[in-house]
Amino acid sequence: MTSRTTTVVLLLLVLLVCGGVRTSAVHARVQAGDVDHFRGASRTDWPARVPTYTRVGSRDAGATAVSDPWLWLDEPAENVAVNGPFRVGGWAFDPAAAGGTGVDAVHVWAYPSPGSGTPPIFVGAATYGYSRADVGDAFGSQYTNSGFRLQGGLGAGTYLIAVFAHSELTDSFSAIRTALVTIANTVRIVVDGPRDGAMVRQRFALSGWALDFSATADSGVDAVHVWAYPAEGGSPLFLGSAAYGRQARPDVASAFGPQYGRSGWALTAPRLTPGTYDLVCFPHRTATATFSPPARVRLTVTASGY
Question: What is the third-level CATH fold of 187-305?
Fold first, then answer.
């Protein structure tokens, strides 16, 4: 039996024993068997195909490894619908690399209304190099630090999210994975405190942040209105318009971009009849001059306070 035949037989045995992918809610844990499953592949309707490479003899003794980056997209899932920001994550490496992962960058693009010819939007460069023990276990410790992550924000609509891996060997983006994503609502509001279910005193402080991910210059939100709905029924009470944009929110800017650094809001509630209330906080979107879906917290207000 020749060395080439031996290699083929061994590879087939590996495929039979190890093939498949174990998935979890967070990311796919990988096995080494299904080689083609993890290779970067272009969609048949891809508008600008990237170069492809063929693994010719890369497993044969003495043969020269040919660059062929492997790319896997854990999230977003195909045909997923999201509100506001979405996460992009997965792993990528080039098995032809003599050392390291062989990949040094992952870029993410979004094609609005696929097939419309609308120019793509650059979502951003993912942070690359996260530890992926599952990848290291399956393919070798050389590829452990092959994970990538990015949080992106886009306006409402349907997009083809395209993820490109850049090979150090060829100095090119030679692998691609895609997912079709629909973004329903671009405005997000968060209540930092009080927490849902809390017991509070009279004239309690309410605060958080709100922004529009489709905004291009600022936070995209210009007001937050707060209402209290008695849990036992009755008419809602308008607690007021929160002070918006006055306090710096470096945590929000760090997570979503510097334009959202002034997205914080705060309100001191007036005195309320003791009882349980659903506090409903409505963000006002600048672009449409309308209120977007709110955030809610249930609080129990005591008689004490000032």
Answer: Immunoglobulin-like (2.60.40)
